[in-house]
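As described in the Methods, two query proteins were run sequentially through the folding procedure within a single session, without resetting any intermediate state between them. The first query and its resulting structure tokens are shown here.
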Amino acid sequence: MSCGAVILRDTPAGARVLMLRVFRHWDFPKGLMEAGETPRQTALREVQEESSISSLEFPWGDLYIDTGPYSRGKIARYYLARTRQEEVELLPSPDTGRPEHSEYRWLSFHQARRLAAPRVAAVLDWAETQVAGAPVGAPSGAIDSRRA
């Protein structure tokens, strides 16, 4: 299982979400759980390792969404978080010594959806619904939304 976070930052133009690019794929900061970690601890570690963001707030508590299986059966769990930190640094991976991502962008939900694969777009839909405060019913199939 991979764990990460959909990170929001408030701006005068509205909420912006952090997207990271690896090759042609845009996603949120996430990575594999390590022994002894909880999913949320993994999410916090991965966000800091991949983006340098160390200050996160979780106004939605332990709410998360799981994706359906992808890439050889992997599942990704995303929490919803806020930060005030605008500057992002694409840090080198502890394993390879090179950054895992080649680009980052703070985007509106609409802009992010235009870059996202269907799996990531479904997570964006869930996050936008949470931000708007509307009740969420987990869509049938790949996405499962619940509290940790």
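Immediately afterward, the second query was submitted; its sequence and tokens are:
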Amino acid sequence: MRKVSDLIQKGPGDGPRRPFDHGELPFVIRRDGAWLYRGSLIGRKELVCLFATVLRRDAEGQYLLETPAERGVIAVEDAPFVAVELGWSGVGLDQELTFRTNIDQVITAGPKHPIRVAYDLVTSEPTPYVHVLDGAGRFPLEARIGRAVYYELVALAEPCEVCGRSVLGVWSSGCFFPLGDLPDEGQDGSA
């Protein structure tokens, strides 16, 4: 006896049902986390949250809106989400850092949700991210950590040595996440 879920997933034919591919869709997620449709701001947070539930990332790193029936590629200027609030409890190895995103997802940094910092090649300015969801390949869906939240992280940071480098970083869920290198002693002429 066939299950209803088998019929929905596979359809009446032999192979698995594939969503209809629309190609490029007229959506853009700006660097500040705002969603645009055909150049107009989507102002209803509930609608943005709904679209975010079907946001995926494929093995090539493209962002998609994908339902069981249809899919299409969208443009994302940086990361699709922004971490806008930080909560923390505990200290050291027992510390837990939680981030709330612009769509009210709450993520606790740890082994499944690491924090990483990318650096601009020209300015060396840091841009921190936290892993939100796995993608289909090696490209995850991430939240860019907002500037004010990053300053809060730096205030919680402590020095540590990682792979022979002196770094400043934060603990969360038993993991240490480097935020940046500590300056070498004596660089400014002092010992």
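Confidence is low (pLDDT under 50) at residues 1-11. We note this only descriptively and draw no conclusion about the first query from it.
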